[in-house]
């Protein structure tokens, strides 16, 4: 890319949205680099404020921008600062959730996000997608029959009577398998409040 064009994007008065459109339409790495220069410190400082870990904060910052580039054809971003700050908080959530050593920090993070109302629709959607993926992994550890019954009940919304007729088994057998699956999910996810709230719709017979 010619130096003149690089200087143009770096010194331009183009808005974040205009730069992003350029990235999407032209696969322009220089426009993307300009966005990186504008926002890397926002992601890093947001992440570091929770983790107090320079290496992990740098890693998260790079991961977020790499994901932006890889998904540039599909992402519709209205506010870069809001979107990237949310991405940073979501990565913090995952790091703290997955680290037993950081359980206290995770609890404090949840309290802070609740008190300051930083959780928004984007964060909730990201969290739910992560939970759905985790639920799928947990269910794979159950027997094929148990998985099938849970799938029919919670994902296809069949009644217990309908499942019993469909599979040629008793209603009691259906209820037992659903109870087994729900118990397995409760044990797997423990006391993670966000996960339990998301799964509440399933905790019924």
From TrEMBL:
It comes from the Bacteria. Keywords: Sigma factor, Transcription, Transcription regulation. Residues 35-98 form the RNA polymerase sigma-70 region domain. GO terms for biological process: DNA-templated transcription initiation. GO terms for molecular function: DNA binding; sigma factor activity. InterPro entries: RNA_pol_sigma-70-like, RNA_pol_sigma-70_dom, RNA_pol_sigma70_bacteroid, RNA_pol_sigma70_r2, RNA_pol_sigma70_r4_t2, RNA_pol_sigma_r2, RNA_pol_sigma_r3/r4-like, WH-like_DNA-bd_sf. The keyword Transcription regulation applies. The keyword Transferase does not apply. Residues 135-185 form the RNA polymerase sigma factor 70 region 4 type domain. SUPFAM superfamilies: Sigma2 domain of RNA polymerase sigma factors, Sigma3 and sigma4 domains of RNA polymerase sigma factors. Belongs to the sigma-70 factor family. ECF subfamily. This is RNA polymerase sigma-70 factor.
